[in-house]
Specification:
The complex is a heterodimer of chains A (242) and B (396). Chain A is of the alpha/beta class. Chain A has six helices and ten strands; from the N terminus they run βββαββαβαααβαβββ. In chain B, strands 2-3-8-5-7-6 form a six-stranded mixed β-barrel. The chains are: A alpha/beta (242), B alpha+beta (396).
């Protein structure tokens, strides 16, 4: 097999993913091919049930496909065991979830410290870095608040801070604006774009929200468990058929 | 990470309160019931505490202190002749009915002690003098018995007196007058009857018709002779049974009459079963409440644990987090429960009923069991979290 070209951040080839029993099988991905480059923000779009989240999970190493290969920053994921996948995610991935998934009993800064503490950083250092990251997302002074004391947009900012605090090369965002209004969603995407813009970082965003397409470099459209089209210019995608 | 685990636990105050209630209630039930159990069991060998002597000699068939098999008076001479005996004094103990002034009867523990040496006399007299026992028809009654029997007394006006008996008051034992010349302070007994001290010879008179009245012999070893050593000598020389007076029930010494009494009651009565059931109930209630509460705590946080897994936290980290949470709650619950048990125990001791003895072993056992409950709770949580797919975080 030829080595992954330096420009490629994520490559999934011929990925199959089925759920359920053989008699009652649901095909989530069928011979799916996907590629994301370093330095870009790529969006995965498509109708509900087309396999976007499944493909995202496969790329994130939280699901292991039945067939096909997945490479993330040169590392083949399909041959790794659970512990190795966990260690890989710890170091290389940052997550922004649809429902934020901030731990409500922890303060804002403690939530942001989590990925650093998982990596084994000392408490004081993690605290300092989390605080600096919160400063970058515009939440200075809110460090000791609880997440439920913040607005939806602010909570998503915390989630972005948490996703980027350990400087992962791959940022995965699952419907990051679906729980936000139009303006807040736009602000959040601008923030993601600003903070993640780096030649060594790749951002994969799954979304239904056509209002944020403009923040992407490319858009991959999914249909029936595979990538049907890739738009190099997001303006070319007609949102009406999504 | 572990500090955050604690913050996660302490951040949910309602859930924490519920969890601590379960653990504290469980610890309370286990510690309190065990302490009352051992308190009651400690009453079984009360005569060993109230009648002080280094060595007790009994019939060879005696198994416990409340069941004396009468000896011949000549046995006293045989024991006195054993090498190493400094002195030996007769002791009579029996349960007899005392007749109060109002006509009521009360079962008492009659203790007849040697009038010459007063060996086995109560240590503390709150009224009167021990020497007055040498006067005719005299007895010394314990404080609690005086109060109890006083309630049965009748005043000069013929009305119930409702006052504790005091020096000068009288009652009857087998139609023979007993005049109180002293009130003593002793520990209460399992049988519940007051301790009434008199001389050995007078005790014979009070127990009319009894052919043999020597229940035990109290023996003091000579200087340089250990009690165990003398016990061996007495047994070899007389064929009687000699016991040491130590009341450490946890020891393995077969010579301790107190210990033998304790274990006799343990094996021959339903008391351990009854209290054991309560302790087990505490354990099961603790497991049920704490396990359920901790499980629901884990369930509520399941999506966050899934998020942690997705972010790269291995099951090792998550398991340690859950153990820290469970054990911290267990530690606090243990403290609260044992603290409450101590407070209840204090009130019990002040009221004098029921007895309450919290041995360090009870604390340790409760501690281990509460941590066991926490361990089970944590394991239930870990099993649940281990089955959660990290990919679940992407399903909204």
């Amino acid at each position: 097999m030829s080595p992954v070209a330096p420009i490629v951040a994520v490559r999934a080839s011929g990925v199959d993913m089925f759920f359920g029993t053989p008699e009652n099988q649901v095909v989530a991905l069928k011979q799916a091919d996907f590629e994301a480059r370093r330095g870009e923000l790529i969006m995965l779009v498509g109708p509900s049930g087309c396999g976007k989240t499944t493909l995202l999970s496969v790329i994130a190493g939280t699901l292991t496909p039945q067939a096909g290969t997945v490479e993330v920053f040169g590392q083949r994921l399909d041959g790794l065991g659970q512990e190795e996948l966990t260690a890989f995610r710890r170091k290389h991935l940052g997550f922004v979830f649809q429902s934020f998934n901030l731990i409500p009993t922890l303060t804002v800064v403690e939530n942001v410290m989590v990925p650093l503490l998982i990596q084994g950083l000392a408490n004081d250092e993690a605290h300092a870095r989390a605080k600096a990251m919160l400063d970058q997302v515009g939440l200075k002074g809110r460090e000791d608040d609880r997440p439920d004391g913040l607005s939806g947009g602010q909570q998503q900012r915390v989630a972005i801070a948490r996703a980027l605090v350990h400087e992962p090369p791959l940022l995965i965002c699952d419907e990051p604006t679906s729980a936000l209004d139009k303006d807040t969603g736009a602000h959040i995407m601008q923030l993601v774009r600003d903070l993640s813009r780096s030649p060594e970082r790749c951002v994969v965003v799954v979304t239904h929200d056509h209002r944020i397409f403009r923040f992407s470099d490319r858009i991959a459209e999914m249909e029936d468990g595979r990538i049907s089209r890739v738009f190099d210019d997001p303006k070319l995608l007609d949102a009406s058929h999504l | 990470m572990y500090r955050l685990a604690l913050n996660m636990l302490f951040g949910d105050r309602a859930k924490l309160a519920m969890l601590l209630c379960g653990l504290a209630f469980s610890a309370l039930l286990m510690a309190q019931q065990s302490s009352v159990f051992f308190g009651i069991m400690s009453w079984t060998y009360t005569p060993m505490v109230n009648i002080r002597a280094q060595i007790w000699v009994s019939d060879s068939m005696v198994e416990q202190v409340n069941d004396a098999k009468p000896l011949r008076d000549t046995d006293l001479g045989r024991v006195r002749s054993v090498d190493g005996v400094a002195w030996a004094a007769p002791l009579h103990t029996s349960f007899v009915q005392a007749r109060m002034q109002d006509g009521n009867f009360k079962l008492i523990t009659l203790v007849g002690i040697d009038a010459d040496t007063f060996a086995g006399a109560p240590a503390v007299l709150t009224q009167g003098r021990i020497e007055d026992l040498r006067l005719p028809d005299t007895v010394i009654v314990d404080e609690w018995g005086a109060a109890l029997m006083g309630r049965m007394g009748v005043g000069p006006d013929g009305q119930p007196r409702n006052q504790p008996l005091t020096v000068g008051d009288t009652f009857e034992i087998n139609d023979i007058q007993a005049r109180i010349v002293g009130i003593c302070k002793v520990r209460r007994a399992f049988t519940g009857g007051p301790f009434v001290y008199t001389t050995y010879d007078r005790a014979k008179g009070y127990t009319l018709g009894a052919r043999r009245t020597l229940s035990f012999m109290l023996v003091e070893p000579q200087k340089g002779v250990t009690p165990i050593e003398l016990c061996d000598r007495i047994e070899r020389a007389t064929g009687l049974k000699a016991w040491t007076s130590d009341t450490v029930i946890w020891s393995w010494g077969e010579r301790s009459l107190a210990r033998n009494t304790f274990w006799w009651f343990w094996t021959n009565t339903g008391i351990p079963f009854s209290f054991g059931t309560a302790v087990l109930l505490g354990l099961f209630v603790g497991i049920a409440i704490s396990g359920q509460t901790f499980y629901s705590f884990v369930l509520e946080n399941l999506k966050y644990f899934a998020a942690l897994k997705a972010m790269g936290a291995g099951m090792g980290i998550i398991a340690r987090m859950l153990f820290i949470q469970a054990f911290s709650a267990g530690l606090i619950g243990f403290g609260l429960g044992v603290g409450m048990a101590q407070a209840i125990g204090r009130v019990m001791i002040e009221k004098g009923m029921p007895p309450f003895v919290m041995y360090p072993q009870i604390l340790w056992a409760t501690f281990v069991l509460v941590l066991g409950i926490s361990f089970v709770s944590a394991v239930i949580g870990i099993i649940k979290v281990s089955r959660v797919d990290a990919a679940a975080v992407f399903r909204g």
